[in-house]
């Protein structure tokens, strides 16, 4: 959908969008569109929600409305709830579960499951994502915080936006990431945007290829190395789509089991790994897990810190030399 209107002199762009098209956009959603590079002023990307003009200019919005869904609680499956109170819940999302409804999803998303397990969920800024403050890739398992009321939702969203949330991951990746000093931390900074040739992928580069590319920063420490793989601990400081996977692929250390950013079977065929162990890797899914989440409680202001142990499939990789 492409929408176009003239901006009134002196009017903020986010306010103008929400007032012009209240049936589509709240002010919060208008700000998200701007942040995502989908709003243009005289054919140039608008970079600030607070943007004003002295003279009226043409505003264009590239917007794809979410399909209409009737959300139903899914009582057929469940997810582990690590902690919950009146305002939030901490859950362990399993690998293979999509976080929220979208094109091509059914009623097996995390949102559908949460509707059956948790007494109430925040409205947030999207009716298809009640309670959802942040996301994990479908293939990634691990800790997520779920908001149960709007106060908690927007306070938590602010902490994520301001990079005040500690997000740690563990992952097995191809190759030896740091053979000289396993204890040293490697910082990786750059930019992430949609891959120009494959829309299923994101691309990490040290310089932006387009004006709407976003900054990306993370660090990792090598915990263990084998002949073919390294176990790393990642501190994710920005939360971009596929950030860890795209970054490690760019460094030529793709995450083990990642079928989007590496050719798993081709790589395995070049190793001396036993057939039974190859099957173990192929059937193990994506070896990436959100293992720690630490933040300030949005209401009590208490520091909350949650951690998960590595699953058996991670531990079994140690036996593959």
Write a brief caption for the model:
By secondary structure, the chain is an alpha+beta fold. 20% of the residues lie in helices and 28% in strands.
Keywords:
single chain; 321 residues; alpha+beta; Pseudouridine synthase; 3 domains
Structure description:
By secondary structure, the protein is of the alpha+beta class. It folds into 3 domains: 2-62, Structural Genomics Hypothetical 15.5 Kd Protein In mrcA-pckA Intergenic Region, Chain A (Roll); 81-162, 2-Layer Sandwich (Pseudouridine synthase); 167-319, Pseudouridine synthase. Helices cover 20% and strands 28% of the residues. The protein has 8 helices and 14 strands. It has helices at residues 13-20, 27-35, 110-117, 150-161, 243-250, 264-269, 275-282, 312-315; strands spanning 2-6, 39-41, 44-45, 58-62, 81-84, 88-93, 141-147, 166-174, 185-194, 202-205, 214-225, 229-236, 288-296, 303-307. The strands form 2 sheets. Strands 5, 6, 7, 8, 9, 10, 11, 12, 13 and 14 form a 10-stranded mixed beta sheet that branches. A 4-stranded antiparallel beta sheet has the order 1-4-2-3, with no helix packed on it. The protein is globular and about 70 Å long. The model has no long low-confidence stretch (mean pLDDT 89).
